[in-house]
Each structure stands twice: as C-alpha cells, then as structure tokens.
Description:
The chain has 15 helices and two strands.
Amino acid sequence: MTRYVLRRLATSAVVVLGVSLITFMMLHGLSGSPGRAILGVEASVEAVAAFDREHGYDRSLVVQYVMYLGDLLQGDLGYSYRLNQSVNDLLAENAGRTAMLAGAALVLAIGIAVPLGVFQAVKRNSVGDNVLTALTFVAYSMPVFLLAMLLIQVFALGLGILPAQASQSSSNFVIFTEPRAMLLPVLTLTGVTVAMYSRYQRSAALDQLAQDYIRVARAKGLSTRMVLTRHLLRNACLPLVTLIGMSIPLLLAGNLVVESVFNYPGLGLLFFNSLNNQDYPVLLGYTLVASIMTVLGNLLADLVVAVSDPRTQNA
Length: 315
C-alpha cells in the first residue's frame, strides 16, 4: 500500500508540473505582452517596456517559468496588478464560496444518482427505466449555461418564486443563510452531475446483479432490500467513487459557467473576469489550484478504491 501511494504521488506531481508548464507557455506565448495587457492600450511603449523589464516579462519564457516555479515553492502564486491584490488572497477569499456551491451540488447529486441508478438497474428495460434514461441523456447532453437559463426562465421570470441572481453575500455559508437565493445555482450544477453519475451507477449495478454472489444471496432467501443494501451497493459504488474524483474538473468548469450566469462571487467568476481582463497571475493561479484539486481528487478516489479492493494496487 505504501509503494502504491508513493507511486501515485509521484505521478500526481508530474501531472501538476506538466499542467503548470503548458498553461504558463500558452498564456505568455500566445497573448502578447503582459505589460501591455496590464497597463492598457493607451500606455506608451516605454512604459510597457519598463514594466516588462521590472517584472521579468522581457526574459525568455523558460527563464520566466523557472522564476515562476521558484515563487511557487515559496507558496507565492503571484500578484494581480489589475486588482492590486495577491493571487493567494484572491483565491482564499473566493475558494470557500465555490467549495460550498460545488460541495452542495456534489452531495445532492450523489444522494439522487445512487438510488436512481440502482432503481434503473433493478427495473431494467421497464417504462420507468426508459423514461429516466431519456431524461438523463437530455440533461447530460445539455450545456450548463442552457440549463441555467431554462431554470431562470421558468422559476425566476415565469413563476417568480426564486431570484435570478445568486446571493452576493461574502459569507462562505451563504447556502445555509440564504438557501432561496442559492437554489437555482445548486440545481443547475446538480442537474448535469446527476445525469452523468446515474448512468455510471446503473451500469455498475447491472454488472453486479449478474455476479454469482448476488445469486447466492438471493438463494439464501434474503429480501431484495437486503441484497441491494448489504451486498450490491458497496461493489456497485466503487466505479462511482473513481468517477467523483475524475469529475472535479467538470464541477470546476460547471462552477465557472454557473457563477458567471448567476453572478455568484466565487472562483469561477474570478476566473471569468480575469480572462476578460487578461490577468495572467490570477489565471495561472486558478489553473494550478484546479489541477492540484483534480489530481488530489483522483488520488483520493484511487486510494479509496485500493482500500476497498486491494487487487487494484497492482494495476
């Protein structure tokens, strides 16, 4: 187990390093002078050159990247000249609100998708299974922004029972203090996630239902409820555990769209505004943090699966 963890940690470190390198080169190599983007189009050539020289932007990309890595090793993600604030502080201020939004959607999605997928597997090819399959395919193929706009049109503009804009509170616990204002963003992010999770859960449950240990449990006279809860769920949920770790990028991407549509002050909205303003340090910091979260999510999922099924440690 120790060798497995060390091997996965080493692989994760290489992935994070590769993501940071590719993102750094793309942003700085394809977007022109950072000094021009920060100072604006009206700044003189001399002022832009002086800014680039002062902050090392006039050096080669390789040298800039080495300097960037040196700052990262000291825990410094850079400084946003647009917002006149360190990237560390900006991410820390907004991370809690984004985590609460993504966490609420994830918990709700799992709570819905697991029983839904098992139900579809048990009732395979029934009318209920076919209807749910059609609905999940529609939800899965629907862009996040389209689902958000549909929910706004129905519940905010049509029925007028929910606000079209998310809460603007700076509290990290706004989901609990202002649940009505956060209902549409949470439902939007949950809808797409449930569609994906339920399909995987249905496939995993179908595979387990065909196994011999399920037949033995039924032959012993156990009720369907006992067979499903005590025997099937543990094994059927293992693929979903891996999927949850792999879906962190989807949640982050969904957060970006949801926060932009509902004007929710989180990391997604910060990234969107930074993209429009060409705020390179913030874009790099967000991308690096997102890649680390993705790698850690996959690592945690692999460890959970490895503990539950030791055979995977040799994979």
